[in-house]
User: Fold these one by one.
Assistant:
Number 1:
Amino acid sequence: MNVFFIEFRDPLFGIIVFFVLVFVITFFSYWLARFKRKEDHRHLDKFLKQFNTLPSQSELKVLITKGELSEKSWLLLAHSYAKNGNYEKSIEIYNELLKVGDKANYRDTMFLLGKTYFKAGFLERARQIFLEILKNNPRTPQALNYLLLVYEYMRDYPAALEILEPLEELKKDIKTDSAYLKSLILLNDLDMSTDVKVQKLLEIYKQTNQLTYLIFEYIFRVNPKLAWENFDISKAELLVDILWNIDKKDLNFDIIMQNSYLRELYTAKGYIQKADKSSTFELDVLININKSVNATLSFEYICNSCKQVFPFAFNRCSSCHAIDTSRVELSLVKDYHKDFSEENNSFQ
Ligand SMILES: [Zn+2]
C-alpha cells in the first residue's frame, strides 16, 4: 500500500499539483471564454432586435415626450413608416406630436395625419381631420383637395362636388374634376334610365372633350351602336382594350373601315383582312403571325402624369390622383381562352 502513497515532500507530489493546477486553469479559462462569447452574442442579438421590433405606443409616447429627437426627425420617421406601408406607427407618431409638438406646426402635422388616414383607408377619420383644418383655415387648398378625394372614395359624389366651389374661389382649375364627378353621379344613379344616362354622358363628353375612357367604356357596354356613332375615332388608341373585347356582332365596320388604326386592330383580331402591316409592333406581329399560333393582346395602364403602371384600367390615378391620365400599353401573351375553348370542343 505504501507504494501508492506519496508524501507531500516527495518531488512527484509537486509535479502532480502543478498539472492539476494547469488543468484547473485551462478548464476555467475555457469556460470563461465560452461564457463571454455567449454574452457577446446575447448582447448583439438584443442590439439588433431593437431595429427589428417597432417601439410600442407607450414607448413612442415616452420617446417623443423626452424630446431627445427634434420634431422634424419624428416627422421624417413617420413619413418613412407611411411610405413602407406601416400606417399604424405613422399615425401614432403624428398623434403624439399633436399632443406635445410645436403649436406652429400643428396644422401641417394635422394635414399629414389626415393624409395618412386617407392612405390607410380610414376615410371617416380623414374626413374629420380635414374638416377640422378647414374649420380654422378655410382657405387651405391641399386640405380641400384631400377632402374632395375622401368624399369621392366614400362615394358621396354630391358632397365632393360641393368642395369644388371653394376651390374655384381659390382660382383652381376645376373643369376636369367637375365633369368627372358629374359623370360619376350619373353612372351611380340607380333611378335614371340607361338611355337618359347615355345622353347626359354624351353631353358632358361634347362639352369637355375629356373622360373618353370613363364615358365610352359605359356606352360601349350598354349601347354599342350609339357609342360607335358618337365616338371620336381619332381617340381609338385610348380605348384599345375596350375595342379589342367588343363582340363581333356589335362592331360597326363602316366606321372601322374609315380609320387605319381600327382596320389594323380588327385585322389583328382576325375579324377582317384589311391590313397587311401596322406601325404598332404588337398589332404588326398579330397581323403577320401564323393564325394557328395562340397569341393575343394583354393590357397594362400607365399614368401619364406619374408614370405608375397598373394592371387595371383607371379614371383617377390612385397614386397621384390625376384624372383622365391613363394610357393603355399593349403586350403579346398566350391566348388561354382559345386554348380552353379548343380543349372543350375536342371533348364534344
Ligand atoms: Zn398618376
Number 2:
Amino acid sequence: MGRRVDRFVRARVFPRESVLDRGGPEAAEALGALRAEARAEGLWALPLPAGLGGGGLSFGAYAEFAEAEGASDHGPAALGSAPLLDVTMLARYGRPEVRDAYLERLVAGEIRSCYAMTEPGVPGTDPFRTATRAERHPGGGWLVTGRKWFTSGAAGADLVTVMARTSGAAGDREGLSLLLVPTASAGFRVVRELPVLGAPGQYEIALDGVRVPADHVVGEPGGALAIAGERLLLGRTLRCLRWLGQAQRAFDLMCERAATHGGSGGPLADRQLVQALVFDALLVLRTTRPLVREAVALVAAGRDARTEVGLAKVAAARMLQQVADSAIQIHGAAGLGPDTPLPALFRTGRAARILDGPDELHITSVARRVLRAYGRTGRTGPPVMGAGAIS
Ligand SMILES: Cc1cc2nc3c(=O)[nH]c(=O)nc-3n(C[C@H](O)[C@H](O)[C@H](O)COP(=O)(O)OP(=O)(O)OC[C@H]3O[C@@H](n4cnc5c(N)ncnc54)[C@H](O)[C@@H]3O)c2cc1C
C-alpha cells in the first residue's frame, strides 16, 4: 500500500501542486480530479474507519506511509485522510445526532471541517485566556460570540469546531468547551484571508451570536482541554510524519542538483562546503526519524506520549526548515523561484515552528516534565526516555 501511495503522490499530486498552491476555483477542480482518481485506485481515506466508508487502517499502519502521503502538503486532502483528526474526535466525543449527521459525509469528502482555537489578540499558547464565549440560549442550545484566526481551511468548510468559554472568566483553568458550528449558521462569517508567507489557506472568522444546538457540544461542557490535548498529540505526530516526507523530498532535490550542476570546476557535489550541507541535512533527517517513530509507537499504543511528541515536533519542524533552506542554497536563485517546490517546503518548515504550539512551548513543557521527575525521585542519572512514563 505504501508504494502505491508513494507512486500516486509523486505521479499525480506533485505535478498539480502549482495549481493547488494558488487556491481558488482552478485548485478546487484539480483537487476534485485527484480525489476521483484516488477513489478509483482504492486509495481513498485509508486511515478512516471502515464503518464510515474509510480504509480502516490503524494509526500505526497508516504511519508507515504517512511520510510518503505528506511529501506534498496536498497529499492528505487528495487521498481523503485530511479529516482524520476531526473524524477521530467526533467519533469519540460527538453526540449520536452529530455522528449520524456528519461523519459519513466527512469521510466521503462531501463536507469539510476545520478547527478554531487561536484568536487575534490572545496568545494561542495560553488557551485559558480564550475570549470567545458561548452562552446558553433560553430556547435551548448555545449562542457563540467571538473571533478566531489562522483557522486553516475555514473558507469552504461546512463545520468548524470552536473552542469557547462556557463558564468562568478569562484566565480560569475550567469552563472551556468545544462546539461544532455549521458554517451556514446565521452570524458566522469569514472575515478575511491571512496569507502565510504568501500562501493561501488560513482565515480569520467571526461568530456574532451564532446559535448552536445543544447536541453540537463535543464532549461535555467544560471538557475542551482534555479533548484538545488528545487531538493535538495525534495531530502533531501526523504533522511530524508529513514533515519528514517533505524534508526527504527537499534532500533528494538538493542531492540531484549538487550531482548535476556546477561550473567549470566540476559538479557542486565535489565542493566540500556543499558536502557539509548535504551531511548536516542527512544527519538531521536520520536523527529526527527515530524520534518521530518513537512518538508514533506511543500514540498508536495509547500510552503517554507527551514528552516524545514534544521532542519530535520541535526536531521535525527545525529539520524541515534546515533541509529546505540548504536545498534552496544549493539551487541558488532557482531555489527561490517558481520552478521547484522548495519555496513551499521552506514556508511549511518555517510555519511548522509556530503552528500547533511554537518551539518554545514544547521545549519548556518537555523540560519541565523531565525536571519534575528528577524532583520526585531524587534521581541523579538521566531519565529513561521513550518509556513515556514522565508526565
Ligand atoms: C500555517 C498556520 C496554520 C494554523 N492553523 C491553525 C488552525 O487550523 N487552528 C487554530 O486554532 N490555530 C491555527 N494556527 C495558529 C497556531 O496554532 C498558533 O499560531 C500557535 O499556537 C501560537 O499561538 P500564537 O500565534 O497566538 O502565538 P503566541 O502565543 O502569541 O506566542 C508568540 C511567541 O511568543 C513566544 N512564546 C510563547 N509562549 C512562550 C513560552 N512559554 N516561552 C517562551 N516563549 C514563548 C514564542 O516565540 C511564540 O512564537 C495556525 C498557525 C499557522 C502559522
